[in-house]
Amino acid sequence: MPATEAKIFNCTQSRELAEKIAGHYGTKLGNVITSTYSDGEFQPSFEESVRGSRVFIIGSTHPGSDHLMEMLLMLDAAKRASARHITAVMPYFGWARQDRKDKPRVPIAAKMIASILETAGATRIITMDLHADQIQGFFEKPVDHLYASTVFLPYLRKLGLDNLTIASPDMGGSKRAYAYSKALESDVVICYKQRAKANVISHMELIGDVTGKNVVLVDDMVDTAGTLTKAADLMMERGAKSVRAICTHPVLSGEAYDRIEKSKLEELIVTDSIPLRQESRKIKVVSCAELFADVMKRVQDNESISSKFIM
Fold first, then answer.
1. If 138 and its partner were Cys, which of 32, 111, 202, 289 is the partner (CB 3.0–4.6 Å)?
2. Residues pairing with 266 in the sheet
3. Does residue 189 belong to any structural domain of this protein?
4. Where are the alpha helices (H) located in 81-204, listed in sequence order?
5. What whole-number distance in Å separates Cα of residue 284 and Cα of residue 260?
């Protein structure tokens, strides 16, 4: 067996996406089984040799915490099985919203997770649309930070919307919105919001004119969909012709699905970085599998991936 042979494995929560990635890569998923004890403790096991191989372990770390734990256990198993390179492929990097201390006596969870992944055995990280770009600096190992714009921009161009305006649902996403507007040669508007507490918006205002515009809201993730649907309704009230949203990671917790159905959003376009909990007529999924497969193959062949960093 060649020392540099690549093998692809999946965490259970990302099985469907991993199968698509392996298909685009041109191989099959490796054989891994997970045994579960009666109290809920589980143990993944590689059922084939990985000695001397480059191992890719695919798994998003969205809640609950078992998803992160499974990734850590598989990294440790690969390390102890003498894999040569161990790449954690995390389409969604969970806990990323805790990237700084925003008040006293709170953790910086994103930094802690980065350290744990490396301790477990990850020699490289491949992820997409981090909540904050600076999270890359929390790692001592190489991080390939991909952008979902690679798959979203072709979709938006196919829609052929006239009077297109890109919007950010908050001030923090303005950089992302400007990058999309530059690529699409469109205007930009920004929503300014104030929160009473996490996931609760007390006030929202619109900066810019959306009268007669086809608006596309851009964000890295959608959780409860409170911000997104409130922004969409506000823009329609201000004279927008239509409002769509593109959000890379469909966390979609709580009342998110119900809010989206009742909102004035034309559609919500997401990737398959996180599997949907239920179907919705308003939610369109654009796969990121080919993007990850291409980057993984380039990493394996020691080729440049700079062409994938279009934002």
1. 111
2. none
3. yes
4. 109-120, 149-159, 174-184
5. 12
Q: Are 291 and 150 in contact (CB under 8 A)?
A: yes
| pLDDT above 70: residue 130 | yes
Per-residue confidence (pLDDT) for residue 3, from 0 to 100: 43
Strand bridging mode 200-207 / 187-197: antiparallel
pLDDT tens, position by position, 87-128: 999 999 999 999 999 899 999 999 999 999 999 999 999 999
Looking at the structure of the chain, the number of domains it has is 2
Q: Among 95, 87, 97, 17, which residue's Cα sits nearest to residue 55?
A: 87
- Give, in order, the Cα–Cα distances in Å from 254 to each of 95, 226, 243, 251, 258: 17, 10, 22, 10, 9
Neighbours of 37 (CB within 10 A): 8
Cα-Cα end-to-end distance for the chain: 39
Taking the C-alpha atoms of residue 151 and residue 129, their distance in angstroms, rounded to an integer, is 12
Q: Model confidence over 258-279: pLDDT tens digits?
A: 999 999 999 999 999 999 999 9
Active site residues: 193
Give me the mean pLDDT over the 44-61 stretch.
Answer: 97
CA–CA distance, 52 with 240 (Å, rounded to integer): 57
Give Cα 14 distance to the centre of its chain: 12
In a domain, 307, yes or no: no
CATH number reported for the structural domain that contains residue 167 in this entry? 3.40.50.2020
Name the one residue in this structure whose structure tokens are 């998923």: 29
Pick left, alpha or beta for residue 105 (phi over 0 → left; psi -120 to 50 → alpha; otherwise beta).
left
**Same domain flag for 208 and 225:** yes
- pLDDT at position 196: 56
Q: What pLDDT is attached to residue 2? A: 40
Strands 6-10 and 54-58: parallel
Instruction: With respect to residue 306, please indicate whether it lies within any of the assigned structural domains.
Output: no
pTM above 0.85, yes or no: yes
